[in-house]
Amino acid sequence: MENYRKARTVEQPCPCPFPNLPSDTPEIRVKDGSKIRNLMRFALSRMEGKTASAEQVGTQEGSEVTTGSEEKLCRQIVFTGTGPSVAKAITCVEIMKRRVHGLHQITTLLYRTIQEVWEPLVSDAGLDSLTVSRNVPSIWVLLSRDSLDSNQPGYQAPGSFDALWAQALKEEAGTQRHGQRKRKGGTGTGRGKGMRKLQGRTGETRKPPGHSGGGRE
Questions:
Q1: Which of 126, 131, 135, 158 is surrounded by the most beta carbons within 10 Å?
Q2: Contact of 150 with 104, CB cutoff 8 Å
Q3: Which DSSP state fits 209?
């Protein structure tokens, strides 16, 4: 491929894997350049009534937001991310679940086809353009205030992971306290030894001349 350069990348359309959603359900497609605070500002505006602009989120941050014609509070919202954006999409989902309590969740994993078009560096070299297709992992997450089918693969009930997060936070706090006590103990021991040595040396230098060796008066 040393004689080619990448001309463009085309993402093949991927339909939403959640059928029969209301027409006003927002679909937030997280991109590499998306900022989480702007994505969450728009998502919360549709779920809680916070003020935000869909144009600001979609245009300035490179994200795509698909909504219904009417801007009103919705009962469901969809987050999706592809490739490097999967982790950022999961972060948005977890933040949303902590801001809006009682959300039901269904997670779907699939592959999305991305085509890369490569053009020859020298047009007169007799080389043809190349099209390379790659299957990139993608995640789709549906959050709903209303109950969902618990038999669906990837279903998570509201609060199903609260105990797990509480245990993880407790273990992390215990590890931090143990490290702080260890650092304090090491510092105190070193300082004590240094002070004892310093006091011994000081006592020796401050002896009166009459008590020094040689019996001088």
A1: 158
A2: no
A3: G
Q: How far apart are CA 56 and CA 175, in angstroms?
A: 41
Amino acid letter, 155? Y
Q: Are the C-beta atoms of 106 and 142 separated by less than 8 Å?
A: yes
Regarding beta strands 27-30 and 76-82, do their DSSP bridges make them parallel or antiparallel, or are they unpaired? parallel
- Mind listing the pLDDT tens digit for each residue in 34-78? 899 999 999 999 988 755 444 444 444 455 555 544 457 899 999
Whole-structure pTM value: 0.64
* In the block, residue with structure tokens 């086809």: 113
| Whether 120 contacts 4, CB under 8 Å | yes
**What tokens does 144 get?**
């709903």
Dihedral of the CA atoms 18, 20, 26, 32 (nearest 10)? Answer: 20
CA-closest candidate to residue 34, choices 73, 84, 97, 74: 84
